[in-house]
Amino acid sequence: MGRRTGALLLSLLVLAVLGGTAFAQTGDGFDLSWNVMGGAGGVGPLEGSGFSLDGTLGQTAIGPAAGGTFTVQQGYWYGAEVAFGVYLPLVFRGW
Fold it and tell me: What's the pTM value of the predicted model, to 2 decimals?
């Protein structure tokens, strides 16, 4: 195994071990441990009690949601058909 490959594997191992220890912030009357932002696109602004939240964090919730007579389809490109597949040898050609 080359020096570069060993360093890459060690970096990935450290990232996997330390990445699993990230926890949600809590304290000062706030608890974000089990909440999800369901608008996985351009969210915002969400306002209330002197606070405002605006932005996109990532694809946090996908799938259809319904309430009353309304239905929303959440997630990036939810329901979009795949126009073409990815040819993996083309992706890995530079390695």
Answer: 0.24
- Per-residue CA distances from 62 to 5, 10, 40, 78 (Å): 36, 33, 8, 7
- Domain range summary for the chain, segments of one domain joined by +: 23-94
The neighbour count for residue 56, using CB atoms within 10 Å, is: 14
CB atoms inside a 10 Å sphere around CB 40? 18
Q: What are phi and psi of 44, to 5 degrees?
A: 130, 170
Residue range 49-91, pLDDT digits in tens: 776 655 555 555 667 777 888 777 666 555 556 666 666 665 5
**Residue 13 tokens, joined:** 């191992």
How, if at all, do strands 30-31 and 26-27 pair? Answer: antiparallel
- Please state the length of the chain: 95
What are the structure tokens assigned to 55, written together?
Answer: 């932005």
List, for residues 15-29, the tens digit of each pLDDT value: 887 776 666 565 677
